[in-house]
Protein 1
Amino acid sequence: MAVILNIESSQSASSVALSVDGNVEWSAVEREAMHQATDLAPFVAQAMEEVTRKELKIDAVAVSTGPGSYTGLRIGMSLAKGLAFGLDVPLIGVETLKLIAVKAMFRNLNFTGEEILVPMVDARRMEVYTAAYDFRLDALIPPQAMIITEDSFKELPQDRQIWFMGDGAAKTRDVIKLPNAHWMDDVLPMAFDMVALAEKSFREKDFLDLAYSVPFYIKDYEAVHGENPLKQLLGC
């Protein structure tokens, strides 16, 4: 029986879930944007209280690795690494794009298994972090940053239904011109969605290096530096 603490902080929401043998035993979600710094640690503390109350023992810590919010990913990864180190358990990484694709799989019960799933994480303007997966989660298009145009995804098979989802998908509806394209709304990654992928990694002993693992940003963070307003005020 695997007991896994799951942490998701790649998007605007923050969430933590406790799973036991593939079933969600407890979860908490804060949907207020960018509250990872204040909400994740209390959620983890509540999860650990549940572990104590049910006389369980954590076997692994799973964390969403990105892409997504730079700040959220750093907070989630730091917290997960600290927990895994303190509890002396392995650290599991769950790719956010795969997480969104898996959530979509469970959302639509009419899928045949031949569809192509295209998760999208908003990267501002017409850019998204995206990939394309089949139902084995093999990447038909590898994870990448992409500026969406009407020619996007035309290299995918045109005889299969293509489904777009994630917080970056809505803005592509009027741009992507594919006759076999469909959109699925409100498919946002949550900690309780991580369970299937985390369990798979645990069974296969697919763990992150606790010392050297970092979030999967895809693109390096670029800070925007403007004129220092204090200099303007002082005239220097």
Protein 2
Amino acid sequence: MTWYEPTAQALEVGRTFTRSDLKALLARAHPELNSNSFQWAIGGMLKSGMLVRVGYDAYLRADGKPLCVYSPDYSERASELICNVADRFPHVQFTVFETALLNEFLNHLIAQNTIFLQVEKDAAIFVFRYLQEGGRRDVLFKPSRKEFSLYWEKDSVIVTNLISEAPVPKDTPHQICLKKMLVDLYCDKQISTTYSKAEYRSLIAQATAQYTVDRTRLLRYARRRNKEAEIVSYLKAAEKRE
């Protein structure tokens, strides 16, 4: 057993620690060592899997369950949409989410899929017109709830504005990342109507237990959408369930 392993094992499961927190705990257990030793120990914890980085200067004790990086398994229709829009508008920022992705986390599965195409504000109307002129009859532009109910069809494409400062993966900028999805499911009025909001608590618990989530960026986005306090309460509840 390495000298820092007892400190790693004593970390509270579910609690987020900063690098300073970890150094202080190591210093308490080994006051004879210096800061360089503690830096090395934190690196060793990460490399061995005892510690998991979940955001900038944010670490969790690994609980023995390997966490994966979330990658959306898009339908053929959504994948085709991403390719078409990216080819036609190579410099436009957009993200695609479809409700079928939620079936991985829900008890009551979604049978009727809806595709949400979130486009940077100044370009959204042009992307909508491009899809409409291409012959798609199932594309709606920022519909009201009434319009959504009246004109929605299976696999409809809902074009809306992409919220500024939304988290976007660097390598796959048009794919929805889990931290954005979890916030949008709670904050977006249209997306939240496509599933039972009563399942949100268990959904966020299952998602965070199965996949790595950068909680710092997730909460920054939640703050951008004025829902940080609510999302924090759900994350805390999820940690207790784990």
